[in-house]
Amino acid sequence: MTDLERAALLKIVAETPARLKAALKGVPKKLLLWTPGPGKWSILEIVAHMRDMEREAYLARYRRILAEENPTLPDIDGDICAIRDDYRSLRLPDLLRDWLKLRKECLKLLKSVRGARWERMGTHETAGPLTMDALLRRQAVGNDEAHLAQIDGIKKRAAALESLESGPKKVGDLTKKLEDAVLRRKPVPDKWSAMEVVCHLRDIEKLWADRLVKAAFSEKPAFYMLEVDDLAVKNGYNTQDLGAALKEFARLREDNLRLLRALPAGQWQRSGIHPKRGEITIERIVEIMIGHDQGHRDQILTAVGNS
Question: Looking at residue 37, what is its pLDDT?
């Protein structure tokens, strides 16, 4: 490893405390404990893991490698630690305090290493030989960068699911108290009424379901498209019952949320092939769904005017 490469890794390790504090600022307790999928850690559990790895996987290993000749470095199972020490019961301020103290010790030690001492090594039970340089890379990239990205991903995923969950209620709030004539009034002949928008949202939820299921369980399936204007006319959207349409929209959305909540974070990168957009991931479908919801809420406001 060159001095420049090592300096870049040391910079990451030195800057992680500030980045971690920023990532955790303002995170409510509910989100700290929220898990992004079955068997996945919450933000609180990730921070607890980072504390324990700082002590056992990095600081302890650095010390042994520098003090002993090729020591054997035991593997550490983070999942076992999380269960054994009940990570979810721990307090974030305590974890941060302990981790910061350990990180300061680690940085002090790393800054004292010179020359050939970076080439000293130990033998990890499963990863094999690890030099000081290799362990530093694991700490900076495999630990710090990876866990910061994991925390950011959890926050984004939680926000996306919350936005999707609130969609049907927001549409209901916009439409439930409208007079029937206002609900079914078209702003101009070729534009949808608020009632037609609600029916569209209900039916397009079936399209999202088809795409999400196919992408989750098939290898890059082909997606179909709907002629939404024809569907509105064929199914008489403007004559349908608002309450029934809202109820079905909410039911279909909850089905989609149930699937999304069950998918591990990595599965959100599975994809399908859209006839016009090309390859799109589940993550991108979720983004489109959120934008679609907002766009049609705006359309409802336009359709009802100042009513």
Answer: 78
The rounded distance, in Å, linking the Cα atoms of 151 and 45 is 10
Cα pseudo-dihedral 238, 241, 246, 252, rounded to 10: -90
The bridge status of strand 121-124 relative to strand 72-73 is parallel
The residue type at 62: Y
Query: Can you tell me the distance from the alpha carbon of 236 to that of 133, in angstroms, rounded to the nearest whole number?
Result: 68
- Please write the tens of the pLDDT for every residue from 39-86: 789 999 999 999 999 999 999 999 999 999 999 999 999 999 999 999
Written as one string, the DSSP assignment of 59-94 is IHHHHHHHHSSS-EE----HHHHHHHTTGGGS-HHH
Token digits of residue 83: 């269960």
Can you say whether the dihedral through the CA atoms of 146, 35, 40, 163 is positive or negative? negative
The pair of three-digit structure tokens given for residue 143, joined into one six-digit string: 């630990």
Q: Which of 187, 276, 186, 285 is nearest to 237 (CA)?
A: 186
C-alpha separations of 113 from 66, 108, 270 in Å: 9, 9, 43
The neighbour count for residue 174, using CB atoms within 10 Å, is 18
pTM of the model: 0.84
Q: Which amino acid, residue 274?
A: H
Which ranges of 90-241 would DSSP assign to H, the alpha helix? Answer: 92-112, 132-137, 146-175, 180-183, 194-217, 228-234
128-131 vs 271-274, strand pairing mode: unpaired
Phi, psi of 281 (to 5 degrees): -85, 170
Q: Is the pLDDT of residue 226 over 70?
A: yes
Query: How far is CA 256 from its chain centroid?
Result: 16
301's CB contacts (< 8 A; 6+ apart) are 174
